[in-house]
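--- STAGE predict ---
source: upstream dedup step, 1 unique chain passed
mode: sequence only
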Amino acid sequence: IFDRLPLLYQTLSQYREDVEVSFVALGDANTDRFPLQVTDFRRGIGLEETLKALYGEGGGGGQARESYELLAYSLLYRAQAPEANRPFLILYGDEGFYDQVNPAQVRGLIGDELHEPLDARRLWRAVAEAWNVYHLRKPYHGQQEKQILAQWQDVLGPERVIMLDDEQRAVDLALGLIARSWGHFDDFERNMTARQSEDKVAALAERVRSIR
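--- STAGE serialize ---
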């Protein structure tokens, strides 16, 4: 995914010159050193710098959860995109989120003061109203997969939780969803065909069209 992220801006900027992108790397605030890394919205060459600044920690504590609730809080109370109308949020991952936002973690990682924990499901439902969210999921290999899937479907809606059958196509799938929303899906297909086989592009296009 990281290797193909530069393609995201290169493609989308052909459809909208003012497009800006923020990259996020998320981990587990209970076990990782850098569990919430959020870059500013940028465009052009600056995106390469912000992408390189992210550190892929690769840790985790085996709880089948990551601190997505901290991302929800950050999006609602810290993210600034005043010119955007319901901007896209593409989430990649395989784990669930913690039920509550931990005030100590918010204080240490974000700098805000909370007097009590916040309900994570309520925050994610608010994010889903303000942002055009798709969660592209790699299946979690364990007994908790059904619980994790149900958790995300509850807050985002079943149609917004998309299982990835090929991780190599993760960025292409996100691009297709955005291009379709912006009315440029035919052009997106042509661009993909110039880089990939017709069979692969046809399968991707069919997948995107099947998503509501």
